[in-house]
Write a structure and sequence with these properties.
3-stranded antiparallel sheet; 58% helix; 3 strands; mainly alpha
Length: 216
């Protein structure tokens, strides 16, 4: 090593100088995270039969809901991810040298020009890239779900987790309102039946008092 120390230093300096532009040109990704606490709604205790009440919320099941494809499509449409080069590789410009090399290869192999991808294929790739940037996991054994998103845009990295939580809460609120409506639909006939029984009992008491002459 002592005999080759200057050669080692020179080679190392040259390699570092060659790699420095690529290192400095690397884009810095940003990561945003939100946390969601899973709790059972109070309305779940309402019902005619305790055995028919919904089971306690399972964080693993809620994670599957957050990763559902309809929500992913909604996120792509809401934030126009298909218009960003980061998630839609078809928007990235192809270098002239790369295009020339690919054309030469196709000419040598006798292949035709590649067909442009359809809109459905582009959407599938965008959704796949969205899932690659998304992290949804349970925090240990707690009922807390961590939602993270990586992006070259810091604002997008912060907005996606919050929007995902908002969409999830909207869906949960709709479910809670549905259960409240069901509970009200069950409770109203019960109240009416109790009122009818009370009125019937009062009528019988009045009839007995009138027939027996009792004052109290």
């Amino acid at each position: 090593i002592r005999r080759r120390i200057w050669l080692i230093l020179i080679v190392g300096a040259v390699l570092t100088a060659l790699a420095l532009p690529a290192i400095l040109g690397m884009e810095r990704p940003y990561y945003g995270q939100s946390r969601l606490l899973i709790q059972q709604p109070i309305t779940s205790a309402l019902g005619t039969d305790p055995n028919s009440r919904p089971a306690p919320l399972d964080p693993n099941t809620e994670i599957e809901r957050l990763l559902a494809r309809p929500i992913a499509v909604r996120m792509v449409q809401e934030f126009h991810l298909d218009r960003l080069e980061e998630f839609n590789p078809s928007l990235k410009p192809v270098p002239a040298f790369t295009a020339w090399v690919d054309g030469a290869k196709r000419w040598l192999k006798g292949e035709a020009e590649p067909v442009a991808p359809s809109q459905a294929d582009i959407m599938e790739e965008v959704i796949s890239n969205y899932y690659d940037a998304l992290v949804v996991r349970r925090s240990g054994t707690t009922d807390v779900i961590e939602i993270g998103f990586s992006s070259l845009d810091p604002q997008l990295a912060a907005d996606i987790p919050n929007a995902l939580v908002r969409i999830y809460l909207d869906a949960r609120d709709s479910g809670v309102r549905g259960r409240v409506s069901e509970a009200e639909a069950w409770l109203a006939p019960q109240i009416e039946a109790q009122r009818e029984r009370l009125e019937s009992a009062l009528t019988e008491v009045k009839a007995f008092r009138d027939s027996s002459g009792l004052v109290s």
